[in-house]
Amino acid sequence: MIHTYSGKTIRFEIKYKNRTSFGITIDNYGNIEVQAPKGTPDERVLHLLEEKWELIQQKLNEMKDRLQGPQEKVYEHGEGFLYLGSTYPIQIFQDKNIEQDFVVFEEDKLQIYVKLLEDERIKLALKRFYYQQCKALVEKSITTYQSHFKTKPRSVRISDSKTTWGTCDSNQKLTFNWRLAMAPREVIDYVVIHEMCHMVHLNHDRSFWRLVGKIMPDYKEKENWLSLSNWKMTV
């Protein structure tokens, strides 16, 4: 079916099922499906869509951006970078007297101080900032959730992995991806909990997921955020 509202047109599919409530799902390609109780009039379905219209448009825009893939960054004033789940503009300052380039988060901006105005220096300063923030955030999260575990991590390291958000080896040494500093705090907490649970269960068996769910019942929401947002977690 097709419906136009507030100047926007969407195409969707209705599935009538033996249920008492409505549901709307949007897959990774922007396909919309409405689940409705059997016998529901089409007018009621359209009314539901209009009630959720802004949220649907937001999700569709997110899907569109995701399918386009990561856009090449420019290292100029105003370019946006993720930090703790939100996008902030950068401000770049040249200071020939500093010994090392650095970044500070202040006044809802990522302020970058470099000796020379070179893209690679700005990029490396940002990466160093994310490494430092990730280490501090992860260690704070470990301290917060340590009471759920009888053993402690033997070490914590930050890495530049292209394939994993975190790992735990058989010696209970934990490693985390520096890009996690771009995720919301609760998502960082999930990845920390996930790896700490591997100190108890090294594989992903049912016992492992029970332990994760006991500590963080809504962990699937955090997984979903990473799944949908990982493409834009870049410098």
Question: Would you kindly provide a written description of the structure presented here, covering whatever features stand out?
Answer:
Helices cover 37% and strands 26% of the residues. The protein contains six helices and eleven strands. It has helices at 42-51, 53-68, 119-145, 185-197, 206-215, 219-229, and strands at 2-5, 8-17, 23-26, 32-37, 80-83, 86-94, 102-106, 109-114, 155-159, 166-168, 173-177. A hairpin with a 2-residue loop joins β1 and β2 (8-17). The longest helix has 27 residues, at 119-145. The mean pLDDT is 92.
What's a concise summary of this model?
By secondary structure, the chain is of the alpha/beta class. The protein contains 6 helices and 11 strands.
Helices and strands in order:
Layout: E1 2-5, E2 8-17, E3 23-26, E4 32-37, H1 42-51, H2 53-68, E5 80-83, E6 86-94, E7 102-106, E8 109-114, H3 119-145, E9 155-159, E10 166-168, E11 173-177, H4 185-197, H5 206-215, H6 219-229
Parallel strand pairs: 2-4, 6-8, 9-11
Antiparallel strand pairs: 1-2, 3-4, 5-6, 7-8, 10-11
Q: Assign a percent range to the helix content.
A: 25-40%
Terminus-to-terminus distance? 40 Å
Beta-strand proportion:
25-35%
Described by the principal axes of the CA atoms, the overall outline is flat
Instruction: Give me the side-by-side strand order of the main sheet.
Output: 1-2-4-3
The residue ranges in which pLDDT falls below 50 over 5 or more consecutive positions are: none
Q: Rg to the nearest angstrom? A: 22 Å
> What is the N-to-C order of secondary-structure elements (H for helix, E for strand)?
EEEEHHEEEEHEEEHHH
